[in-house]
Design brief:
The protein has 407 residues and is α+β, with helices and mostly antiparallel strands. The protein folds into two domains: 195 residues, no CATH class; 195 residues, no CATH class. The protein contains twelve helices and twelve strands.
């Protein structure tokens, strides 16, 4: 039986002779609980927003994207597409040619990105087609003169589905000679809007999507692509697959996974999360100094017990352990209480969404998104206990100097 732990537990739960000691102990425990609760809730909210943002970009970023390291575009004849298909169980492979263009609808003009897409297998649907809320896909027509447009871009140019007048697309003519009156400065193509999609605000404001063949003919880039986008059937070994693709294609091509495609965004999200974690951990450290006051007050009240234990031959380490365990128990029960309440609150928010983002304004979600990650819960508990152990060592050393050595 651990005598030091037994005595510490009796000291913690027994009624003290002075009511101030009970109050300080309760404040210490409550301070640890509130600090732990804040860490759990705030990190869970950050996890919720991070998952929400990732889900938004998941629809516009493929598992892998392949670009040429030599130039903007590359010839498909120099690309081992069949070898790529054999690497993993792909759900789809999209061949893409993307170009920045000038769009004109009546008197309104806007710079946007024209994206030509061809998918393998051809019977599968494009991910973006699931987000068409008005009209239908350009693939529903045999002609290459149809396109789908993002909601924000359609609003900017006052575009409507199946409007009679075409949308004019302009791109600089790379073959035009300077000071030549006969060469057209711009290449022009007319497109009709077959549908409008809404998937992610930045993407909706930038992209016009049409067939790959139509873009290649328009730009005189037959057999050329700017990228290849790959989607997996299931969660495979992404790092291993990426290395296999890089080994197959060599240094002429660059392969990016989802994280690398939005690397800056994900780094910002992680930096914000851990910055808040360290700020709250510092606040928790300050709050746990109440444990010092609590343990010192218990030491002062139990100094006769300390003298008696010392006179009976109790080792110094055992006496110190009693009050070390005292601080440890305050930290443990306070941290456990805060952890329990925090996790329950987060799961309640997930289930019922009782905390709203606001009554006014347009939000992607109506309630604060939260996501409890058990790795974070473990890290928080480890942090709380480490801080508690560190802080408790202060009054423990005080016992030896003031009471035992002077006896």
């Amino acid at each position: 039986m651990n005598i030091a732990l037994y005595i510490a537990r009796r000291y913690l739960f027994s009624r003290k002779s002075k009511n101030a000691v009970n109050i300080i102990t309760a404040i210490s425990l409550l301070g640890v609980a509130i600090g732990t609760l804040a860490l759990v809730v705030v990190l869970s909210v950050f996890n919720g927003f991070e998952s929400l943002i990732k889900s938004m970009y998941h629809e516009v970023n493929s598992d892998f994207v392949i670009h040429s390291t030599q130039s903007k575009s590359f010839n498909t004849k120099d690309f081992n597409l069949e070898g790529l298909k054999a690497i993993a169980p792909w759900s789809s492979i999209q061949e893409v040619y993307e170009e920045k263009v000038l769009l004109r609808n009546d008197d309104q003009e806007h710079i946007a990105k024209l994206k030509g897409v061809s998918i393998w297998p051809s019977t599968d649907s494009l991910i973006i087609e699931k987000h068409i809320f008005k009209g239908n896909s350009f693939r529903s027509y045999s002609s290459d003169n149809w396109a789908i447009v993002g909601q924000s871009l359609a609003y900017t140019l006052s575009l409507s589905v199946h409007q009679t007048n075409p949308l004019k697309v302009f791109v600089p003519n790379p073959l035009a000679k300077p000071n030549s009156l006969s060469d057209a400065v711009f290449l022009q193509k007319n497109l009709f809007v077959s549908g409008v999609f809404s998937v992610q605000s930045e993407y909706d404001a930038s992209y016009l999507i049409t067939s790959l063949n139509g873009i290649q003919e328009f730009l005189n880039k037959k057999d050329f692509l700017t990228s290849i986008e790959l989607e997996l059937n299931s969660d495979e070994n992404l790092d291993g697959i990426q290395k296999e693709i890089e080994s197959l294609l060599g240094t002429q091509f660059n392969v990016e996974n989802r994280f690398q495609q939005q690397e800056f965004l994900y780094k910002v999200l992680q930096t914000e999360k851990w910055a808040i974690f360290f700020i709250l951990a510092f606040i928790l450290l300050i709050a746990t100094f109440n444990i010092v006051a609590s343990v010192i007050m218990i030491v002062l009240e139990k100094r006769k017990d300390i003298s008696s234990l010392w006179a009976m031959g109790t080792p110094v380490n055992t006496i110190q352990k009693i009050f070390y365990y005292e601080g440890f128990l305050i930290t443990f029960f306070g941290g456990g209480l805060g952890m329990l309440v925090g996790v329950v609150l987060c799961f309640a928010q997930q289930e019922y969404g009782f905390i709203k983002l606001g009554e006014q304004g347009s939000f992607i979600v109506n309630t604060y998104p939260v996501e409890v990650q058990w790795a974070d819960v473990g890290l928080i508990m480890l942090t709380v206990m480490s801080i508690g152990i560190l802080v408790t060592s202060i009054p423990v050393s005080f016992i030896k100097r003031k009471f035992i050595q002077s006896s």
